[in-house]
Design brief:
It is a single chain. With 209 residues, the protein is mainly β. 14% of the residues lie in helices and 51% in strands. It has one helix and twelve strands, in the order αββββββββββββ. Strands 1, 2, 5, 8, 9 and 11 form a six-stranded mixed sheet that branches. Strands 7-6-10-4-3-12 form a six-stranded mixed sheet. A hairpin with a 5-residue loop joins strand 1 and strand 2. The protein is elongated, with a radius of gyration of 24 Å. 26% of the residues are buried.
Length: 209
């Protein structure tokens, strides 16, 4: 029985240290950047879905609803470097990272007709490029996308991306007559714990140092 007291004390000390370390990790992550997942990029084309239904009086009633079509790049290339940094909180050293990326790719002309959508119902000028970022507050440098050689600034939020809640978007506009469009942009981002990629390209190449 006498040996149980030191064992209990050690167990309590270990639990306390684990709790203090977790608090230190949460404090550093809140200021530096949380676990990051990058989703996309994808091209989102808003359009208006219109239909007719029968009203209460038996007469036809025109209805409309805003919707979105999401297109994946034909080619996607992600290159960059991840540097690990130690942040100190009391007796604890917390590893975090700095990510520097270049994202480039190519979209084929969006084919709305193939999806059963009237191309005339699309708002081509409001088409936007979207990148999902778990913790966009940790983006360290303002970035601009080169869209067909034309610079377009990114805005916060994913707009009409749907399932992807947080990230950045650029209202790039699309020429529906263009066969292909190219894009590229840099991304500087901080994070901690883990880094995940959910690339959307049909042909994807990822190279990280």
């Amino acid at each position: 029985q006498a040996l149980q007291i030191p064992a209990t004390m050690i167990g309590g000390l270990v639990s306390e240290r684990q709790g203090r370390r977790q608090s230190a990790v949460e404090e550093v992550s809140a200021k530096w950047g949380h676990r990051q997942s990058l989703t996309g990029p994808a091209l989102v084309v808003p359009y208006t879905h219109r239909w007719t239904e029968t009203g209460a009086n038996g007469k036809p009633v025109a209805r409309s609803q805003p919707r979105r079509a999401v297109f994946l790049p034909d080619k996607l290339k992600i290159q960059g470097k991840v540097d690990t940094v130690l942040r100190h909180r009391g007796i604890f050293s917390i590893p975090v990272y700095e990510l520097a990326l270049t994202v480039a790719g190519e979209f084929a002309r969006p084919d709305l007709a193939e999806l059963g959508i009237d191309p005339d119902a699309a708002n081509w000028r409001r088409a936007h490029l979207v990148l999902g970022v778990t913790d966009p507050r940790a983006i360290t440098e303002q970035t601009t996308v080169s869209w067909q050689g034309r610079p377009v600034g990114f805005l916060p939020g994913t707009g009409e991306m749907g399932e992807v809640d947080t990230g950045i978007r650029a209202v790039v506009g699309v020429d529906p007559k263009a066969e292909r469009v190219t894009f590229s942009f840099p991304l500087a981002l901080n994070g901690s714990s883990a880094l995940h990629f959910v690339p959307f390209g049909r042909e994807t190449f990822v190279d990280l140092e």
